[in-house]
Please model this.
Amino acid sequence: MTETPAMDIDPGLLSAAREKTAARFEGVDPTHPAVAELFELAVSRLAREAAADPGRLTPIPPPRPGAPLAGVSEFGPSRRLVDDIVPPPLPRAFLTLQEVLGNPHSSLRDIAAVVSHDPGLSALLLKLANSAYYGFSGRVDTIDRAVGLLGASEVHTLAAGAAVSTLFRDNPYPELLDIPLFWKHSVACAIVSRFLAKKRHEANPERFFLAGLLHDIGKVLLAVAEPEMAAMALEMARREKLTGTRAEKNVFAFDHAELGGRVIAKWRFPESLALIVAGHHDPAACRDDPDPAVVHVADMVVLALGMGSRPDPMVPALFPEAFAILGVHPQDLCLAADELDERLPPLTMAFLDGGSH
Ligand SMILES: [Fe+2]
Ligand SMILES: [Fe+2]
Model:
């Protein structure tokens, strides 16, 4: 979808959308050309959405006053270490698939045979192979054909995403983390990460899709393993207007990015993937290495467009060095937004219901 010019939109809606968007961009350098581009894009999109649903312009509520945060100031950060948080094991079916995919002698038929033993993954691959996302012609009704069309690398990425998303489908703490919104944010970040990697002519853009998909997995682990402390970090961020990572560091002495990197390593994904996840909020990592910079910028793009793991998310600062190291143009971010419009709905649906419907 190409953006229609903002002139077509009712000026009243546009100025209300500008005001609300400015509140989300508070603390972000508006003079950076990429930020300026994203801001205008976010304003025109919100105004267009508001034409259909005026509720979209409801102002962001100010932080609620409440009792002082017990525990943090008196006792300092939690004594929990990042390695104390142990992730659940990945499903056995995925581990078997990983082995087959890692064997250079495996054929697509071997891969299809393993996939066939996993009903959830089979359904997901068939559903995606038949979706507009891939645009294959004709009905894809066998796993052999789906695996053949998708290819080994794509099957690995989708299987990894499906395996991790099934681990956390039942969220015992919905007030801490909205799982459907969390996966929508993750899939959006995956799509933009792959888009930016392609723009950079990366040899394997698929690995950036997986990095984007898993970049915030530490947030889920924190919510599930340490719900009280995670709630405290959330409340602290809201009240003191801190970024989520700053508040997490105050409460835990580590943040979701560091935890996510450790968890990815414990699951024995490639080290390069763990480094991207661990570095996506770290200015030093993003300055020196384009890999985490890709996901850092993609994360900022999707948050700027309003796709956070909660409604109306605040936009995090863009590290200018991270944007510079990518070598993409600010206007490319508009193309990334078009890519999201096209690819996000079918893929999010597929991950959320695991292809079971
Ligand atoms: Fe993050
Ligand atoms: Fe994120």
